[in-house]
Design a protein that fits this description.
Layout (H helix, E strand, L loop, with lengths): L8 H27 L4 H23 L11 H4 L6 H23 L1 H10 L1 H34 L5 H4 L2 H25 L7 H30 L6 H14 L4 H31 L3 H4 L11 H27 L6 H10 L1
Helix pairs in contact: 1-2, 1-6, 1-8, 1-13, 2-4, 2-8, 4-6, 5-6, 6-8, 8-9, 8-13, 9-10, 9-11, 10-11, 11-13
Amino acid sequence: MELQSVWGWQPALYLFLGGMGAGAFVTAALLYLREGDRHRRIVCGSMGAAALSLAFGLLLLLMELATPARGLLMWQSFANFGSWMTYGAWAAFGAMGVFGASALLAARPVSRWLRGRTKWYAAREDAVRKALAVAGIGLGLFVACYTGMLLMAPGGVPLWSSPLLPALFTVSALDTGVALVEIVAATAAKGERLSAGACRALERAVVVLVLLEAVVLTALVVTSLVGPASTATGLAAAASAEALAKGSLAPWFWLLVVGGGLAVPFGVALRGVLAAKRQDSVPAAATSSNGGGCPAEAARERTATLVGAVGALVGGCALRFVVLAAGVHADLVGETIVRMIG
């Protein structure tokens, strides 16, 4: 059986960018709701990066349409509200608006300008930003899940039709989203450091998300391998799983997805969690010189965090490409004809 070749690199990159952007906004919004404006630059930069990622991903997806410009006319192109494609398209565009608005309001110059122009906003700034954060979290989770449901829509590809795929892409979106926020915190938001509590929360989140992603990915591959071999669906599912585990896609799957996307960030995050536990045993007076800052501010720790985050992004991107490439179509027509003849 031949691997999928109809969908190219644009949809694969959209699945990655859309999921990563959604996950990054969820992470940044939770950081804001947890610690307020203590990390305003990091939150602003992360939300901005989330909006840009989703916008670029949607642009790539529109390029796959026969008439890309028509896709921008949402009320004409996505008017069938009995279709998941319509729900996903409206949610993605809505999320992009909420992400962008949240990033703008988190920017101090914009915030100062609005407070000076309208007393209403000055009195309700925190409530408005929190409302956008909560709405964005909901939209972000839906968009992250939809990146997997989008592949389920065409049908005929057992690997994509599994309900485990939306779960896998959702967890991976959150994982890569945390990684993007870590990169923003370590590089873009100069002069602002994450608190020790925020660092520990992100590291623990990475450990949990990577473990969960590994479990779901294993379940997806194993259930595809052990399916009924007597049916076209079972044969196609097994072919997809074999291509990932030991076939033409195996080098990319094991090196980039498992090694770079799971093992590397898990090792770095677990190291940080264990280091935090050791630090907790040190008297508070001994650590007061750090000003409550994140241990990752040290050059070596920051480098380790960046390595783990980059590994997560590379692995998350590779995951979408190999899953898309491994989408073997089941020969349902041939199987039906054989049954009719028999």
